[in-house]
Design brief:
TAT_signal; Dihydrodipicolinate Reductase, domain 2; Gfo/Idh/MocA_oxidrdct_glycsds; 10-stranded mixed β-sheet; Gfo/Idh/MocA family oxidoreductase; Rossmann fold; 452 residues; 16 strands; alpha/beta; 6-stranded parallel β-sheet
Amino acid sequence: MDRNVHRRKFLATMGLAAASGLTPSLGASANKNSKLRILQVGVGGIGGMDRNALVKHPKVEIAGLCDVNQRTLDKVAKGFPKAKTYNDCRVAYEKDMDDYDAVLVCTPDHTHAVMALHALAQDKHLYLQKPVVHQLDEVRMLRKAIAAKPGLATQMGNQRSEKAGRNQAIAIIRSGALGKVTSAWAWTGKVAKNTYFNGPWLEKYPDGQPVPSHIKWDLWKHCYTGDVPFNNILADKKWRTYWEFGGGQLTDWCCHLLDVIYLALDLEGPIAVQTDTPKPATAIGHSAYNQSRITYNKTAFTKGDHFIIHYNDNDIHPSNAETGIPLGSRFGTNRTIFVCENGTLVLGANGDLQIFQNGKRVKDFPMPKVAPRKHWNEWVDNCFGAKNELLGRLEIGTGVTEAGLLATKATRYPNRELVWDSKACRFKDDAPNKRLLKREYRDGFKPPAEFV
């Protein structure tokens, strides 16, 4: 689509004033000697890690910074005095996109889809923090967008994928050294009050507080149509606890725990999901002690007509007898297990890898050699035309996010199997489609019409 045509549609969608004199920009992939000029939306938290990693690449320039927290924005901007700054990313999208080649989105989950889709619509390379979207219907939209823009480099924020152990695990499974995979298991940490969560089954939002002068609270709410009062607990990190803004533990961690399963097994979309939970999720907050079973059709690497990922939160381990691991074994939080015909592979999120055969750990299992991976650099190089097989490309990112969202959404229908059509992004039954599929978008914060 012509860039000026998209700009006019963007202005109508986002409710902003028209701009004049718009001309197409020369993308980084076309200009081999240029810098990759990045607009970062969301500069605090995980955004700092991404930014600090990206600027180590000699061809990266942080050219724009956007955040609803003026205090955080001012602090970061001191390190990039030439960068333009914004509180409202729509201003950058409206007026200044010719100044950028790529967009880095590091904001709360509920904002991801709209920000990402408008960046892709304006032909910008995209680095998108996980989970890549917040709603199941947004999976469909994002897939439509990346299919329409095959020349753009996209990457999800699953930086752990560069760990050698995770790549060795993929190589072992794909080599058949342990036989075909009969099932996979993964589990997250505990669902409790901590740095990122505010506990399960919450019935209300935190009590309202005066909005600090440096916080643009209306912009933080973004596409949300309701009226939620400001509270620093919600605004800072613990938005993950609440349905309207985050996805609980299952969606928050799916991209670090399930990506390796998708990459190793060539999984296509799920065909069913069932999440067992002792108590249904509330209207406000996510539940806990969730045990989900996500069903797939077989692949060349799996045994049986169907394949199941067992995905739990709250540090719920599988039965050791069922997985072929010595009785009494414990592995801590955030683990992925492949149960195979000839052994079991246990993988930590940070790449620690163990093999078990015949009920015993095999300490001298021959580990394959894998090439070093550089998660952020590989994406930048692809923006300039390289052909790295990105382990976080959005074809994978949408898949694992879809799985995490299904596991989470199914807590609304506990202990019941929901049949899913991944290509259409719809449930077989109308009731969950009406309740779980999509959200309403606030005027001025809607996705681009071409991808809806």
